[in-house]
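Take a look at this chain, tokens included, and explain the fold to me:
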Amino acid sequence: MTPDRFSVITDGLPSQLPDLDPDETREWLESLDTVINVAGRSRARYLMLKLLERAREHQVGVPALRSTDYINTIPPEREPWFPGDEYVERRIRAYIRWNAAIMVSRANRPELGVGGHIATYASMASLYEVGFNHFFRGKDHGQSGDQVFFQGHGSPGIYARAFLEGRLTEQQLDGFRQELSHPGGGLPSYPHPRLMPDFWEFPTVSMGLGPIHAIYQARFNRYLLNREIEDTSNSRVWAFLGDGEMDEPESLGAIGVAAREELDNLIFVVNCNLQRLDGPVRGNGKIIQELESYFRGAGWNVIKVVWGRQWDELLARDVDGVLVNKMNTTPDGQFQTYSTSPGSFIREDFFGSDPRLRKMVAHLSDDQLRNLPRGGHDYRKVYAAFKAAVEHTGQPTVILAHTIKGWTLGKDFEGRNATHQMKKLTKPELKEMRDRLYLEIPDSALEEGLPPYFHPGEKSDEIQYMKERRA
């Protein structure tokens, strides 16, 4: 008797595998049918996912899933201990957020008006600060160090950090986008080593340039190591990118090279604030899920940082899978609506569609619902993702972090379609941002003239902490 044969797709290649034990196969299929009929499709789906997970643990050659649920890849119980001082790091981020926004706002005073971007860095401050404080390696002591491709529109935040460190002065910050006209020289609006060779290492603002250059830089570093030309074994290449930027052909065109070459010295961090110039990146879709499919399909390790820690309790209560299903089926355009809506609307529109969801958040106030955070703003979630990325071997890693564009800039900025084009803060917006960041700046300083930069003092705990971490 000839065994039954059927087509199986393994790692993209079709093959014919015989059924060596039809009775056992039938028992497995009947068991699945029973689970579906008795416990429902959600339970069957859960068991299938657990089987796939166990199969990968035992290196059984089954294709990987191209996308997973719209939740964090790393569950709370697997998160590592956060080694930093949470309070001090929060204060540092507040100072940098303020100075970055003030620098752009001051550059757009009536007699100047040179433009710039306020909202991009505001959405990714936590991503950068976790890197600066815990992961980026310098080039001192004979080390080749890490190479970081910064997202171009986030440059004000990098300048603002350098100001706190004492590497840039107030006069230099006031020269933003005035490279030739400002006395003593200005700061280029985007990363470029031509005018600042001791500050920037790579140009990145031409959309798609950062991703493809990072891939070939990581490949070249591996070449140097393998040919014993230079020891780059401790060097990593980091590329900080925008989700809209990933639509550029150069952004995804070479990701297969990184996977084939097993460039585990390469980490992409995609700031998924769901917005491009004047609206959602995928209003009727889900850009994080789409990018996950691209990168998984190309052979990358994918880590999603979607929700902040306050969601962990709700997901733990989600025994029926209704919350995860709601997350999976809500398009990006609607999440953008929630970022600008009151908690009462979120309660009715997101949680009100199912009594089980409504009950799940009955103990939370409207303000608490409004402030349920995205994962890219939670430094613990970001730290867990970065740590998993640097420890992963055999594949490049992409971290997809969900954020809100203009985060902490106030209700007139956060998640608004026009946020990318907004260049300055009004007096009420300045006061709202100051209060949001708990900065000791008097109203009088915001009433007349240009809004001031903020520095806590060279001997403050925050500045000492920054310098210690940098060292």
About this structure: Residues 1-15 have pLDDT under 50 and may be disordered. The longest strand covers residues 266-272. DSSP finds 20 helices and seven strands in the chain. Residues 86-106 form the longest helix (21 residues).
